[in-house]
Amino acid sequence: MTLGLLHGSCPDALILCHQATRDYIGDYHGREPWVKIPSYVEMIEIYESAAQPVHPTKVIGICLNTYDMKEERGAGGGRTRGRGNGTARDLTPYGFDSDVLVDAIIGARATI
Q1: Which secondary structure element, helix H or strand E, spans residue 84, and what is its range?
Q2: pLDDT tens, 75-91?
Q3: What is the pLDDT of residue 10?
Q4: Cα–Cα dist 44/107, whole Å
């Protein structure tokens, strides 16, 4: 998200989106990766801090793009997608139900 978009839209809440298999920005079209993507904790802090001077905002959810990850069945039958040393819950609207994100948005809206 660009700073102009963040400031211009003055969001009350944000959902952080990330492709779970990407570690770098710029690792496409045969180019060498050039910017390490910060951790989720750092990204949340960056977005909330960047928005603060214009309009306070909070990250209320994380949406993982896991289209290129292998689907697995976890304990209890829940669907997860695995990558190397861990798994990530797929919260993409096209992957599994987006109820968790919708509930976060409605909950955030109720507190505004």
Answers
A1: none
A2: 444 444 443 333 344 44
A3: 94
A4: 18
Token digits of residue 92: 């993409």
Q: Rounded to whole angstroms, how far apart are CA atoms 32 and 109?
A: 41
Is residue 56 within 8 A of residue 50, CB to CB? The reply is: no
| pTM of structure | 0.67
CB-side neighbour CA atoms (13 Å) of 54: 14
- Tokens for 27? 């690792």
3-state SS record for 45-93: HHHHHHHCCCCCCEEEEEEEECCCCEEEECHHHCEEEEECCEEECCCCC
Amino acid at the residue 43: M
